[in-house]
Amino acid sequence: MSAPGAKGPRITVYTQTNSKGALKVCDGPEYSLAFTGFDDKIVSVDVKRGIWVLYEDVNFGGNIYVVWEGQKINLPMKTTSSLKPIEGDFSDNPSLTVYNGPSFTGKNKTFNSSNSNLVATEFQDSITSVFVDSGTWVAYRDVDYQGPQYLFTRGAFNGTSSEGPFQNDKISSLRPITRCGC
Ligand SMILES: [Ca+2]
Ligand SMILES: [Ca+2]
Fold first, then answer.
1. How confident is the model at residue 166, as a pLDDT?
2. Do 81 and 30 meet the contact criterion of CB atoms below 8 Å apart?
3. Which ligand has the minimum distance to the alpha carbon of residue 171?
4. 122-161: per-residue pLDDT in tens?
5. Which range marks the domain in which residue 139 is found?
6. Are 57 and 111 a contacting pair, CB within 8 Å?
7. Sheet (strand 51-57) strand order
8. Which PANTHER family does this UniProt record tie to the protein (predicted)?
9. First CA to last CA distance, the chain
10. What's the gap in Å between 12 CA and the centre of ligand 2?
11. In a shared domain, residues 27 and 72
12. CA 17 to CA 43: how far, in whole Å?
């Protein structure tokens, strides 16, 4: 029999690339990595279960970096000071609608899969509100899933996001979180 909570979120963080160096297994929120030896030291992660958000500041503040189940990756930054799992669904039919006006007004477009480059669309640097019908989505300031991230879970987001400092008229790429870790 598996122990209670064996299905809960779990991530292992490492101080060296490729899951090497000192490691720490986390099963829940870590509001501050200060005094743990891992503050601004995490460079790779192995996500066993769930969706996790890494924050550059303590108390879940500052820019975010989202990682999810199946990902065993090196990070592009070394700034993580807190982290936590978030409730999110891995939908097989993700759906997110963007609007270029506030409160779900103006032109809109529904996405059901990733888009690495919005530059050719009329939504490049013009998204102001977002509605997620299904799935969990990560949007990026820059094309090709680069730059600061904004996390959107199911629900309505008017000029903000569920995690990360959403910036109006900045999103240039977006993608749904999928179980394969792609
Ligand atoms: Ca930090
Ligand atoms: Ca942009």
1. 82
2. no
3. 2
4. 999 999 999 999 999 999 999 999 999 999 999 999 988 8
5. 95-177
6. no
7. 61-68, 51-57, 82-86
8. BETA-CRYSTALLIN B2, BETA/GAMMA CRYSTALLIN
9. 31
10. 31
11. yes
12. 6
